[in-house]
Amino acid sequence: MSEHVAADHEGLRIAVVIVTYNSAAVIGDCLASLPAGAHGARLTSVVVADNASADDSVAIAERAAGEGLPVRVVQVGRNAGYAAAINAGVAALDLGALDAVMVLNPDCRVRPGTVTTLAQALGPAGRGITAPKLVNPDGSLQHSLHRTPAIFRALVTGLIGGGRAGRIGTLGEMSTDPRDYDGPQGAVWPWATGAAMMISVRALREVGPWDESFFLYSEETEYALRAADKGWTLWYEPSAMVEHIGGDSGTSPALAALLVVNKVRLFRKRRGALPAVPYYLAVILGESLRAVAGRRTSRACVAALLRPSRVRMP
C-alpha cells in the first residue's frame, strides 16, 4: 500500500469539495458529472461549501443529495472567498476516513474516470497534488500549467504578452505551448489552475489550510508553492479531463484588477519587499502598455496597482 493512497483502486476513498457563490446555473451539471467521474473509486462525500448564495445553488445541491449523491451543504455564512470556503469544506470532512480530497469549481464538469485517475496518480511517494487537463466547453485546450513567478517572466510577459511568452522556452509563467499539455509530467510545473485539483490527505494535513487572505486568485498558487516548500510535487495528468467554463477575469475589469493585485501581493509575501519592487514595476509596465492600447481590463489593473487599497471584492 502506498503511503498516500490505497493500492486497491476500488478502495480509494475520495471526497470532493465544491465552492459555490450564486452558482445555480452550473452546479447541477457539476454534481451530475461526479458519479461517472469517480467510477472505480469510493466517492464518500461531496461537500458544497456555499458562500451565502442568493440564488438556488443550495437548493440544487440539496436536491442532488435527495437523489442519492452523498452531498452535504456547508454554509460559510458570507461571501468569504474561495480559500475560506475550501477550508470550511475540508473542515467538515473526516480526513482519517479518506485518501484524497478533490477541490472543484462549480463551473466544472469532470469527464468519466477523471476523479479516480487523479487519485490513483497520487500513489508514488512525494506527490501531493494532481491536476487534470482543463478544456473549454467547446473541447479546446485551456492553458492551466504555470511556472514559478519571477521578475524576468513578469517583464517578458509585460513586453510581448503572456500568450507569446508562454510559447518561448521558460520565459512565460503560464505555458501556452500545446505540446506541454500532451503527456503526464511531474516536478515540472510548480502550480496549476485551481479550478480542479486532487490533494492527498497527507499533504493536506502537512501543508495546512489555504491562505484566506487571498479572497480570489493566487490562492491556488500560494497553496501549491507552499506544498512544494514542504517537499510535495504536483503531477499533471492529461488522461484526466475536466471541462471548465471560467474566463471571467479576462472580461471583468474588477476581477482582472483583483487577479493582478493578488499576483503582486503573493510575490511580495514569498520573496520579500525588496524583490517585489521590480516585479511590481514589470507588471505595471505590461498593464500600462495594454491600457494605452485600449484594453479596458488593463486600465482597471493599472488603477488597482497604483491604489491597491481601493480594490473591491466581487
Automatic annotation (TrEMBL):
Keyword Transferase annotated: yes
Pfam families: Glyco_trans_2_3, Glycos_transf_2
Domain Glycosyltransferase 2-like: 16-143, 186-241
Entry-linked Gene3D superfamilies: Spore Coat Polysaccharide Biosynthesis Protein SpsA, Chain A
Keywords: Glycosyltransferase, Transferase
Coiled-coil annotated spans: none
Domain of life assignment: Bacteria
A molecular function GO annotation: glycosyltransferase activity
InterPro entries for this protein: Glyco_trans_2-like (IPR001173), Nucleotide-diphossugar_trans (IPR029044)
Known pathway: Cell wall biogenesis; cell wall polysaccharide biosynthesis
Similarity section: Belongs to the glycosyltransferase 2 family.
The protein, known as: Glycosyltransferase family 2 protein
Organism classification: Bacteria, Bacillati, Actinomycetota, Actinomycetes, Streptosporangiales
